[in-house]
Structure formats: structure tokens, C-alpha cells
């Protein structure tokens, strides 16, 4: 369970909060003091067309079917294009899409079975498709300089030699990735395996993806992009629609949640203060279920969790609320609503043991990394790792293949949160500010949140592919501003 002590260790103190929704009482229990920086309702953000929360049904991203299947591989085709879609009710918005969908269609792959994905760029600017969280060779990593020219295509081959996990694809073309992702180039990639299948978790229509993000719309419904503009992105979207509702049966549901925002950190809780059961994180299942009243997700992070709606009376309306700003509480403090129906038969379960993680080998190398950016109001607009902005011609870290390393990462910014994402490898978080991590961070991770002044220790082993890969802040506007570096595994 995420206790008050764990919340404070994450930096979730009263000063960190800028908005609180219906779960404000829970926040006060965790953070002891209330939302000191909460914005008043309707204040502090540019307003787009008014949308009444919980009037739009939750859509579920369509599953992309392979156009060809062989004994060992599934073949997919995806086209990137500009598309006009209804996001806000009654209005159409131009977005960038994979196969005309916002967010893109979901690929359901299998561990040990290859997925071959041909990406066709029908846009008028270069793109690069990164499978976030995956262990792939350089030629299929989708790095920031390995771009697809307009009118051309590239085939990515994913061997899927890793445990089942909630992964996702997104654009990574440097200096364009921030706007491309913001305008819609992202989609889920759900990797399943036999071990997970045998657990008896909720499945089929009771396993539901939730892709969270925010956006800024002008009065006409056009999506407005401005670099590093967290304050005005106050329309919350789930699976591409604003503040939706979902009709649920009185039984257990499994939710596969992704924070696909550029900058927004979500601290989520149910409006009645009850716990959810987190069962997985970025790299797959946790060793054991982690009951928690709060889910903390920075951009790029994923949470796999179960809610049992059988404990609620039919007709109950249960909100999923957000307790962190910036932005007015009546907008950013609300995410979606669950409308509970009749109880139905349920043979799913959440076992006490979900997976066994391999023992951590002894590390042979230790490194330190400092994340920092020009503070708001300073006049600067750059971001740094170890005092340097990104240079595609520079190798920042050289790593010997097969070694296990411990990386100490510190957020040296005074007011700005960051997170840290590694390509190629999943890591284990050893400690946060010198203390053991709470259970929801005890699994495999590829992205970790750091509030100002925080330090984490990460352990990872480089024993798969060789080559040059990036590591960067996944508050992706910061990455585009230079908070990215390159490692070379030799």
C-alpha cells in the first residue's frame, strides 16, 4: 500500500500539488496539509470549447489485425497520416494518426513470437517509431535520428524476447517528437505470455486499456501546441475522448493504463478513497499484488491494475480523480467516471504471487547522472543531462556488453519535475532518496519519476544488443529541449 510515508518520499507533499478533484480527502490523508497550491475552479488556463464531464462514452482503441501470419511471425501495416476526427463533442480536430485512429490501434503481440510492422509515412515531415519498453536491436529501436522520410516506409522487426508487458509505440524524430506525440502519434502494444494467461486475471472485454493524456484546444476545437506548455493543456482525454464515462458490471476489471502526455504527471485515486490492486508496471507483472489508494504515473509510465466493482451497489457512480496540477481542479482534477451496473458471474482472480523476478547480479560499474533545465522565468529554454544538451554526434556513456551497472540519477532542478527513460533495457529501482521503494515500483521499469531534488538508484544489465541507444527525460518536451544523451554498448 502507498502510505503517507511513501507519498512524502515520492515528493507528494502539499507543495507539490496544484489541483485536487473529488479525492481531496484522500490527498489530505496522504500528504498531511491539503492542496496548498490548488487553483480555484475555472482559473488559470486558456479555455477551449466547454465540455460537460462524463457525457461521452469511453471508446476502446481497436485492435490491429495482422495482414499476414506465418509459423513464427505476425505482419502488420501502419500508415501515418493527418486525419480529422471528433474528439470534442460536435467538433472535428485535425490530428496525426496511426491508421486513422487517435490514439493509434492496439497491437496485441505474444512473447517469443515475432511482430513485423511496416510503418508508412504519409505525412510531410520525417518520423521515427519507437516501441517504448522493448528490447530491440538498433535498427528496430526507432531512435531519434533513424527517421522515415515523407512518402517512404520502414519495417521494424520485434522479436518480443521479454516477459508480457504494457508497451507502447510513439514518434521519436528529434526536434519533432514533442509535437508529433502531442498531436497523436502514439498507440498501445500489449505483449502477452503464457505465464500471465495462467493466472486467471480478468480478460477479454474485462481487460480494458486506458490511454491518458491532456491537450489544449482553442475556441474552434483546434489542438494548440506550444513547447513546454503544461499550464494550458487542461482538457483531459482518455482513449482520445474528454472526461468519458464507462459502464461496468459488478465484477473485477483489469485496466492497462498508459500516461501518454508530454508533460503532465497524474496522481490518481477513486473518489470514495478505496484501494485499487496494482499488478504490473512498465516492464510487466509485479512479484505480488500491491493494494494502493493512489496510482502515480509520469509521462511514459504504465500501470496495470484491477478494480473489483462487485463491492458497489448497482447505480453507483465512481469517479477516477487526479490530485496534481497544474490547472484548475474542475478540469485537470477529473479523469473519468465508472457507472456500476448489476453484479455478474466472475471467475477471474488476482493470485498472491504474480511472477518471480530474477535475482539481481552484482554490479561492476556505477555512474551518476544529473537532470536539470533552465528554470521558468530564467529566460533560458534548454534542458541538460550532466550539464550537456543532446548532440547526435556525441557518445556520452560507453558500456561494455554483459555488464551490470548501477546508475544514480538526480533531479537537480529547483522547481521542475523530470523523469528518466532508458531505451533497450528494463531496470530495477534499488532505492529512492536512500529508502527502499514501495511495492508498485518493485517490478521491472523503464521510466522513473523524480520530483525536484530527488535521487534514485537504478540497476540494469546490458546483455542483449550492442549499438547506440538514447536515454532521456520522457517529459518529452524536455527531451526535445535537449535532456537526452546516448549510450554505446560495445
UniProtKB/TrEMBL annotation:
| Alphabetized InterPro entries for the sequence | Cu-oxidase-like_N, Cu-oxidase_C, Cu-oxidase_fam, Cu_oxidase_Cu_BS, Cupredoxin, TAT_signal
Q: Which reaction does it catalyse?
A: 4 Cu(+) + O2 + 4 H(+) = 4 Cu(2+) + 2 H2O
- Which Pfam families does the annotation name? Cu-oxidase_2 (PF07731), Cu-oxidase_3 (PF07732)
Please give the superkingdom of this protein's source: Bacteria
Keyword Lipid biosynthesis carried by entry: no
Q: Keywords of this protein's UniProt record, alphabetized?
A: Metal-binding, Oxidoreductase, Signal
Which leading EC class covers this enzyme? Answer: oxidoreductase
What's the name of the protein?
Answer: Multicopper oxidase CueO
Q: Boundaries of each Plastocyanin-like domain copy? A: 83-194, 379-488
Q: Which family does it belong to?
A: Belongs to the multicopper oxidase family.
For this protein, what is the EC number?
1.16.3.4
The record's note on quaternary structure and interaction partners says: Monomer.
One annotated GO molecular function? oxidoreductase activity
The signal sequence is 1-22
Supply the source organism's classification.
Bacteria, Bacillati, Actinomycetota, Actinomycetes, Kitasatosporales
